[in-house]
């Protein structure tokens, strides 16, 4: 037997169904639109661990290079020193003040006043001898006491300091003894305010 062609069989089947042959072939050529495959990402190329490490190291080195290029490879301590130096330069200095005083002529005025004060001191220190007398000039030295402000107490040297532990202990002992003496004083018992005033005056002197 001779094998029948497949085309003839398709035409016969199409005639039985009542459809022409052209419509069947046109339907077969229409592409089908299928949804995306959910497992398609599994077939994509993945980044290996070595590639990840290389990318991280390269990004870290790039950041370091940016920082070094911005700061000029200067340490933090050096930057602090530079800023401190700039601040010190901005502060007013005594040399600049002297220069400004010299320009204003204040220095000349102070020199004149100092010369006048020297002349007055020399005139006071030297005494002109009287007529017929043979003694030389006598220098007179006067000591001036600086006035103490009201309520202030002159501090004496070689006293225990309250800043260290030993001095604080000695001061506490002294104050406790002084407090007991004041309480036992008859003058303080009669008029306490007058006694306190006298003690303050004695401490000033």
From TrEMBL:
Stretches for region Disordered: 1-54, 71-91, 105-167
InterPro entries recorded: Slx9-like
Biased composition (Polar residues): 126-164
A GO molecular-function descriptor: G-quadruplex DNA binding
Origin: domain of life: Eukaryota
Keyword annotations of the record: Nucleus, Ribosome biogenesis
Principal location: nucleus
A single Gene Ontology CC term: preribosome, small subunit precursor
Subcellular location: Nucleus, Nucleolus
Start-end of Basic and acidic residues biased regions: 36-54
Pfam families hit by this protein: SLX9 (PF15341)
GO process terms (BP): maturation of SSU-rRNA from tricistronic rRNA transcript (SSU-rRNA, 5.8S rRNA, LSU-rRNA); ribosomal small subunit export from nucleus
Reported function: Involved in ribosome biogenesis. Required for normal pre-rRNA processing in internal transcribed spacer 1 (ITS1). May be involved in the movements of the replication forks.
Subunit details: Interacts with the 35S, 23S and 20S pre-rRNAs and with the U3 snoRNA.
Family: Belongs to the SLX9 family.
Protein name, UniProt field: Ribosome biogenesis protein SLX9
């Amino acid at each position: 037997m001779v094998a029948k062609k497949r085309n003839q069989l398709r035409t016969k089947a199409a005639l039985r169904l009542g459809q022409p042959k052209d419509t069947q072939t046109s339907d077969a050529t229409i592409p089908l639109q299928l949804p995306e495959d959910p497992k398609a990402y599994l077939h994509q190329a993945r980044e290996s661990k070595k590639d990840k490490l290389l990318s991280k190291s390269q990004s870290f080195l790039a950041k370091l290079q940016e920082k070094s290029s911005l700061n000029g490879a200067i340490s933090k301590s050096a930057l602090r020193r530079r800023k401190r130096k700039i601040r010190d330069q901005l502060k007013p200095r005594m040399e600049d003040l002297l220069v400004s005083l010299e320009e204003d002529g204040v220095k000349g005025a102070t020199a004149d006043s100092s010369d006048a004060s020297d002349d007055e001191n020399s005139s006071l220190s030297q005494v002109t001898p009287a007529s017929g007398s043979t003694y030389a000039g006598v220098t007179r030295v006067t000591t001036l006491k600086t006035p103490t402000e009201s309520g202030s107490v002159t501090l004496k040297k070689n006293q225990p300091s309250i800043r260290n532990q030993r001095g604080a202990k000695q001061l506490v002992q002294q104050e406790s003894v002084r407090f007991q003496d004041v309480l036992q004083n008859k003058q303080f018992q009669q008029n306490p305010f007058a006694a306190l005033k006298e003690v303050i005056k004695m401490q000033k002197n």
